[in-house]
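agent> fetching stored inputs for the zinc ion docking request
agent> found them:
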Amino acid sequence: MLSIPASRPNAYTGSPLDRVSDRRDDADFVAAALADPASLIAPVWRAKSLLRGVESGAPEAVLLTREAAEAVLMTGGPWALLGLRNDGTAVFTVDCSAAEDPLPLLPEGYGSFHDLRAVAGLLPPGEASMLAHARGLMHWRTRHRFCGVCGQPCEPRSAGNAMSCTGCGAQHFPRTDPAVIMLVVDEDRVLLGHSTRFPNSTMYSTLAGFVEPGESLEEAVRREVHEETGVRVGEVFYHSSQPWPFPASIMLGFHAEALSQEITIDPAELRDARWFTRDEIRNPESAGFSLPRVDSIARRLIEDWLQGAPA
Ligand SMILES: [Zn+2]
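agent> prediction call returned; pasting tokens
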């Protein structure tokens, strides 16, 4: 039985914002929030987030006041309401990618733009979630300016959280592509692969892949594992999920029961795949490999199996 509960929340979860999706179409509410000098803005520049303290190893999100964001807002990029903080303060995001160099847009001492993924594990709780939300939403807005039905320009509605076609009236909503990520278990061993895409030569991680149209999550788990390693999978148990708006996914994590053991890798996807024993997973250095990052859902699937599975 591989139904193993998640031991703690995943990275990029726990946003401090109430998304107030029921108020996005209230034009008076949105106009008042936009005009309120107390409202805050999380800018995104070319998929990067505004942070300070990165160099000193204590990064934190920078939210601009309306006044501090004046030049950022003047770039004319898309904006959207992210939500309200506990104290009622509205938080918006704006994309200022039109600027070649965004730093002159900011007052002195307001940080600089960084890839969120590099520092997410070091941010105060909830900040990675909020910045990932901003980044994912702005990615969608900057890449869905025209209607996929008729090709005419779209205009924003719902405080920037939807697009409406000026030609045919079609409504378009932000996309989140489901991806499955799974730890395949064969009694006391687990299946990990070394992807051709991994930057580091010793890392072995869980298998993963996108869900295709018309496919259930369980079917996607079984198909991906078989395609990449030749291993047959039976029962599939949901564990937890992790937002992954890099650019537009959510990772859906599973433990999966192996029905076969022989491995035949797909060389287009993997350089290697192996069964690792419990002892090897506990001591990866002595077994000559490394595990995925501590803040990844892959690592959580592995560690929770190690802790939670019957020995
Ligand atoms: Zn259209």
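agent> quick read of the result: The chain has two domains: 21-143, 177-308.
agent> awaiting further instructions
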